[in-house]
Amino acid sequence: MRDLRQKNQKPVSRNRVKRERIPIDYRGILKKGVRFIRWATVVSLAVLVVYEVYGVVARTTFLRLERIEVSGLKRLTREEVVTQAGVKVGDGMLGLRLRRIGEQLSKIPWVDKVRVRRYFPGSLIVEIAEREPQAIAHMGYLYYLDKGGEPFKPLTVGDSLDYPVITGVTEEDMARDPAGSREALKGALDLIAILNEGAALKMDEVSEIHFDKGFGYTLFALQNGVPVKLGNGQYREKLQRLARIYRELQAQLPNVEYVDLDYGDRIIVKKS
Is 157 domain-assigned? Predict the structure, then answer.
Protein backbone atom coordinates (compact mmCIF):
# COMPACT_ATOMS: atom_id res chain seq x y z
CA MET A 1 0.00 0.00 0.00
CA ARG A 2 1.33 3.38 -1.06
CA ASP A 3 2.05 6.14 1.37
CA LEU A 4 -0.27 8.96 0.22
CA ARG A 5 1.42 11.45 2.51
CA GLN A 6 4.51 11.38 0.35
CA LYS A 7 2.44 12.17 -2.74
CA ASN A 8 0.95 15.35 -1.31
CA GLN A 9 4.18 16.58 0.24
CA LYS A 10 5.83 19.55 -1.64
CA PRO A 11 9.40 19.03 -2.71
CA VAL A 12 12.03 21.12 -1.03
CA SER A 13 13.85 23.50 -3.42
CA ARG A 14 17.57 22.98 -3.44
CA ASN A 15 18.15 26.59 -4.60
CA ARG A 16 16.45 28.14 -1.64
CA VAL A 17 19.10 29.82 0.51
CA LYS A 18 18.39 31.07 3.91
CA ARG A 19 19.17 34.82 4.08
CA GLU A 20 20.69 36.26 7.15
CA ARG A 21 19.09 39.44 8.49
CA ILE A 22 21.64 42.27 8.79
CA PRO A 23 21.14 44.22 11.99
CA ILE A 24 20.80 48.04 11.70
CA ASP A 25 23.40 49.97 13.67
CA TYR A 26 21.08 52.57 15.21
CA ARG A 27 23.74 53.61 17.69
CA GLY A 28 26.24 54.41 14.90
CA ILE A 29 23.67 56.40 12.95
CA LEU A 30 22.77 58.35 16.07
CA LYS A 31 26.43 59.14 16.76
CA LYS A 32 26.91 60.42 13.20
CA GLY A 33 23.77 62.60 13.49
CA VAL A 34 24.97 64.09 16.78
CA ARG A 35 28.41 64.73 15.28
CA PHE A 36 26.86 66.51 12.27
CA ILE A 37 24.64 68.68 14.50
CA ARG A 38 27.66 69.68 16.59
CA TRP A 39 29.63 70.59 13.44
CA ALA A 40 26.75 72.60 11.99
CA THR A 41 26.29 74.42 15.30
CA VAL A 42 29.97 75.35 15.50
CA VAL A 43 29.96 76.64 11.90
CA SER A 44 26.78 78.65 12.49
CA LEU A 45 28.21 80.22 15.63
CA ALA A 46 31.45 81.06 13.82
CA VAL A 47 29.55 82.75 10.98
CA LEU A 48 27.45 84.69 13.50
CA VAL A 49 30.53 85.83 15.41
CA VAL A 50 32.29 86.94 12.19
CA TYR A 51 29.16 88.81 11.10
CA GLU A 52 28.87 90.60 14.44
CA VAL A 53 32.57 91.46 14.46
CA TYR A 54 32.29 92.75 10.90
CA GLY A 55 29.34 94.92 11.90
CA VAL A 56 31.19 96.32 14.89
CA VAL A 57 34.31 97.07 12.84
CA ALA A 58 32.25 98.61 10.04
CA ARG A 59 30.66 100.99 12.54
CA THR A 60 33.91 102.13 14.09
CA THR A 61 34.87 105.75 13.41
CA PHE A 62 38.35 104.96 12.09
CA LEU A 63 36.86 103.06 9.09
CA ARG A 64 34.52 105.76 7.81
CA LEU A 65 34.50 107.17 4.28
CA GLU A 66 36.26 110.52 4.47
CA ARG A 67 37.02 111.41 0.85
CA ILE A 68 35.36 110.70 -2.54
CA GLU A 69 37.57 111.41 -5.55
CA VAL A 70 36.03 111.50 -9.05
CA SER A 71 38.13 111.87 -12.21
CA GLY A 72 37.64 111.85 -15.99
CA LEU A 73 34.61 114.15 -16.07
CA LYS A 74 33.92 116.37 -19.09
CA ARG A 75 30.16 116.80 -19.22
CA LEU A 76 29.08 115.16 -15.98
CA THR A 77 29.48 116.90 -12.64
CA ARG A 78 30.92 115.43 -9.50
CA GLU A 79 27.58 115.88 -7.73
CA GLU A 80 25.77 113.84 -10.41
CA VAL A 81 28.27 111.00 -10.08
CA VAL A 82 28.24 110.90 -6.27
CA THR A 83 24.44 111.04 -6.15
CA GLN A 84 24.10 108.19 -8.66
CA ALA A 85 26.72 106.15 -6.79
CA GLY A 86 24.59 106.34 -3.64
CA VAL A 87 27.51 107.01 -1.29
CA LYS A 88 28.37 109.84 1.05
CA VAL A 89 31.07 110.90 3.43
CA GLY A 90 30.59 109.09 6.72
CA ASP A 91 29.53 105.75 5.25
CA GLY A 92 31.31 102.68 6.58
CA MET A 93 34.25 101.68 4.41
CA LEU A 94 33.63 97.95 4.80
CA GLY A 95 29.99 98.39 3.86
CA LEU A 96 30.75 99.89 0.43
CA ARG A 97 29.66 97.57 -2.39
CA LEU A 98 32.06 98.46 -5.20
CA ARG A 99 30.37 96.34 -7.85
CA ARG A 100 26.97 97.80 -7.07
CA ILE A 101 28.41 101.34 -7.21
CA GLY A 102 29.91 100.59 -10.62
CA GLU A 103 26.61 99.18 -11.89
CA GLN A 104 24.74 102.27 -10.71
CA LEU A 105 27.20 104.60 -12.42
CA SER A 106 27.01 102.59 -15.66
CA LYS A 107 23.34 103.59 -15.89
CA ILE A 108 24.35 107.19 -16.62
CA PRO A 109 24.13 107.56 -20.44
CA TRP A 110 27.40 109.52 -20.67
CA VAL A 111 29.40 106.83 -18.86
CA ASP A 112 31.33 104.52 -21.18
CA LYS A 113 33.61 102.86 -18.62
CA VAL A 114 33.86 103.15 -14.86
CA ARG A 115 36.35 101.92 -12.27
CA VAL A 116 35.68 102.08 -8.54
CA ARG A 117 38.42 101.49 -5.97
CA ARG A 118 38.57 101.65 -2.19
CA TYR A 119 41.66 102.78 -0.29
CA PHE A 120 41.86 102.40 3.47
CA PRO A 121 41.50 104.06 5.82
CA GLY A 122 38.88 106.36 4.21
CA SER A 123 39.08 107.02 0.44
CA LEU A 124 36.85 106.03 -2.49
CA ILE A 125 38.25 106.60 -5.99
CA VAL A 126 35.88 106.74 -9.00
CA GLU A 127 37.40 106.90 -12.49
CA ILE A 128 34.99 107.74 -15.33
CA ALA A 129 35.52 107.49 -19.10
CA GLU A 130 32.76 109.41 -20.86
CA ARG A 131 31.31 108.70 -24.29
CA GLU A 132 32.15 111.12 -27.06
CA PRO A 133 29.26 111.93 -29.44
CA GLN A 134 30.18 111.36 -33.09
CA ALA A 135 26.86 112.28 -34.69
CA ILE A 136 23.16 112.79 -34.04
CA ALA A 137 20.69 110.15 -35.21
CA HIS A 138 17.17 111.35 -36.02
CA MET A 139 15.16 108.26 -35.07
CA GLY A 140 11.87 109.91 -34.20
CA TYR A 141 13.77 111.47 -31.32
CA LEU A 142 17.27 112.86 -31.56
CA TYR A 143 20.00 110.66 -30.10
CA TYR A 144 23.73 111.04 -29.70
CA LEU A 145 25.75 108.25 -31.34
CA ASP A 146 29.03 106.99 -29.92
CA LYS A 147 31.94 105.76 -32.04
CA GLY A 148 30.44 102.27 -32.25
CA GLY A 149 27.20 103.53 -33.78
CA GLU A 150 25.30 103.03 -30.53
CA PRO A 151 22.54 105.55 -29.71
CA PHE A 152 23.31 106.28 -26.09
CA LYS A 153 21.47 109.44 -25.07
CA PRO A 154 18.36 111.31 -26.21
CA LEU A 155 19.04 115.00 -26.63
CA THR A 156 17.53 117.35 -24.09
CA VAL A 157 17.40 121.11 -23.66
CA GLY A 158 20.90 122.54 -23.62
CA ASP A 159 22.59 119.66 -25.48
CA SER A 160 24.77 120.68 -28.40
CA LEU A 161 23.42 120.21 -31.94
CA ASP A 162 26.77 120.83 -33.58
CA TYR A 163 27.19 117.29 -34.94
CA PRO A 164 26.48 115.56 -38.29
CA VAL A 165 22.88 114.39 -38.62
CA ILE A 166 22.02 110.84 -39.72
CA THR A 167 18.50 109.88 -40.83
CA GLY A 168 16.81 106.76 -42.18
CA VAL A 169 17.10 104.51 -39.11
CA THR A 170 14.11 104.62 -36.76
CA GLU A 171 13.44 103.36 -33.25
CA GLU A 172 11.27 100.64 -34.80
CA ASP A 173 14.23 99.53 -36.93
CA MET A 174 16.40 99.34 -33.82
CA ALA A 175 13.80 97.19 -32.04
CA ARG A 176 13.23 94.90 -35.03
CA ASP A 177 16.81 94.57 -36.28
CA PRO A 178 19.26 96.02 -33.75
CA ALA A 179 22.38 94.51 -35.35
CA GLY A 180 21.49 95.70 -38.86
CA SER A 181 20.51 99.15 -37.59
CA ARG A 182 23.80 99.59 -35.71
CA GLU A 183 25.68 98.45 -38.81
CA ALA A 184 23.88 101.11 -40.88
CA LEU A 185 24.67 103.81 -38.31
CA LYS A 186 28.30 102.65 -38.10
CA GLY A 187 28.52 102.86 -41.90
CA ALA A 188 27.35 106.46 -41.72
CA LEU A 189 30.06 107.20 -39.17
CA ASP A 190 32.68 105.67 -41.49
CA LEU A 191 31.39 107.95 -44.24
CA ILE A 192 31.68 110.95 -41.91
CA ALA A 193 35.32 110.04 -41.26
CA ILE A 194 35.99 110.09 -45.03
CA LEU A 195 34.18 113.41 -45.43
CA ASN A 196 36.35 114.85 -42.68
CA GLU A 197 39.35 114.10 -44.89
CA GLY A 198 37.93 116.67 -47.32
CA ALA A 199 38.11 114.68 -50.58
CA ALA A 200 35.41 116.77 -52.30
CA LEU A 201 32.47 117.59 -50.09
CA LYS A 202 33.64 118.43 -46.61
CA MET A 203 31.61 117.47 -43.61
CA ASP A 204 30.74 121.09 -42.86
CA GLU A 205 29.23 121.28 -46.38
CA VAL A 206 26.84 118.38 -45.66
CA SER A 207 23.59 118.96 -43.81
CA GLU A 208 22.44 115.33 -43.56
CA ILE A 209 23.43 111.73 -44.27
CA HIS A 210 20.43 109.57 -45.15
CA PHE A 211 20.40 105.77 -45.15
CA ASP A 212 18.04 103.63 -47.21
CA LYS A 213 18.11 99.82 -47.13
CA GLY A 214 17.56 99.62 -50.86
CA PHE A 215 19.65 102.53 -52.15
CA GLY A 216 22.35 102.94 -49.52
CA TYR A 217 23.63 106.35 -48.42
CA THR A 218 22.75 109.78 -49.74
CA LEU A 219 24.41 113.03 -48.75
CA PHE A 220 22.46 116.27 -48.73
CA ALA A 221 24.66 119.24 -49.54
CA LEU A 222 24.26 122.21 -47.26
CA GLN A 223 24.04 124.47 -50.32
CA ASN A 224 20.52 124.11 -51.81
CA GLY A 225 20.09 120.69 -50.17
CA VAL A 226 21.14 118.82 -53.34
CA PRO A 227 21.16 115.00 -52.85
CA VAL A 228 24.45 113.26 -53.66
CA LYS A 229 23.76 109.54 -54.04
CA LEU A 230 26.60 107.28 -52.96
CA GLY A 231 24.93 103.88 -52.67
CA ASN A 232 26.88 101.27 -50.73
CA GLY A 233 30.66 100.97 -50.53
CA GLN A 234 33.65 102.57 -52.27
CA TYR A 235 32.79 105.96 -50.79
CA ARG A 236 36.31 107.34 -51.01
CA GLU A 237 36.63 106.50 -54.72
CA LYS A 238 33.21 107.95 -55.50
CA LEU A 239 33.94 111.18 -53.68
CA GLN A 240 37.28 111.45 -55.46
CA ARG A 241 35.41 111.31 -58.78
CA LEU A 242 33.11 114.05 -57.53
CA ALA A 243 36.13 116.15 -56.58
CA ARG A 244 37.17 116.40 -60.25
CA ILE A 245 34.02 118.30 -61.22
CA TYR A 246 32.93 119.78 -57.94
CA ARG A 247 34.23 123.29 -58.53
CA GLU A 248 32.36 123.55 -61.81
CA LEU A 249 29.31 121.91 -60.26
CA GLN A 250 29.08 124.34 -57.36
CA ALA A 251 27.95 127.19 -59.61
CA GLN A 252 25.22 124.96 -61.08
CA LEU A 253 23.89 123.56 -57.78
CA PRO A 254 20.81 125.81 -57.71
CA ASN A 255 19.65 124.07 -60.92
CA VAL A 256 20.70 120.54 -59.98
CA GLU A 257 18.06 118.02 -58.90
CA TYR A 258 20.54 115.35 -57.75
CA VAL A 259 24.03 113.94 -58.31
CA ASP A 260 24.40 110.17 -58.62
CA LEU A 261 27.84 108.63 -58.02
CA ASP A 262 26.59 105.03 -57.85
CA TYR A 263 27.09 104.23 -61.55
CA GLY A 264 30.47 102.56 -61.93
CA ASP A 265 33.03 105.17 -62.93
CA ARG A 266 30.45 107.70 -64.14
CA ILE A 267 28.82 110.71 -62.55
CA ILE A 268 25.19 111.49 -63.35
CA VAL A 269 24.06 115.05 -62.77
CA LYS A 270 20.28 115.48 -63.08
CA LYS A 271 19.28 119.08 -63.64
CA SER A 272 15.87 120.42 -62.75
Answer: yes
Is residue 6 a part of any domain in this protein? no
Number of domains in the chain: 2
Question: Do 156 and 121 belong to one domain?
Answer: no
Domain span at residue 266? Answer: 135-271
C-alpha distances (whole Å) from 221 to each of 142, 169, 200, 252 are 20, 20, 11, 13
Q: CB of 166 within 8 A of CB of 195?
A: no
Q: Would residue 55 count as lying in a domain? A: no
Do residues 154 and 142 lie in contact, with contact meaning Cβ atoms separated by under 8 Å? yes
Say whether 88 sits in a helix, a strand or coil: coil
Residue 123 contacts residue 63 (beta carbons within 8 Å):
no
pLDDT one digit per residue (tens) for the chain, 272 residues: 455 455 555 554 555 555 566 666 666 676 677 777 777 777 777 667 555 555 555 555 568 999 999 999 999 999 999 999 999 999 999 999 999 999 999 999 999 999 999 999 999 999 999 999 999 999 999 999 999 999 999 999 999 999 999 999 999 999 999 999 999 999 999 999 999 987 677 888 899 999 999 999 999 987 778 999 999 999 999 998 888 888 788 788 888 899 999 987 888 888 88
User: Does any domain span residue 56?
Assistant: no
pTM of the model: 0.73
Of 107, 130, 153, the residue at which a domain comes to its end is: 130
Note whether 69 and 167 are same-domain residues: no
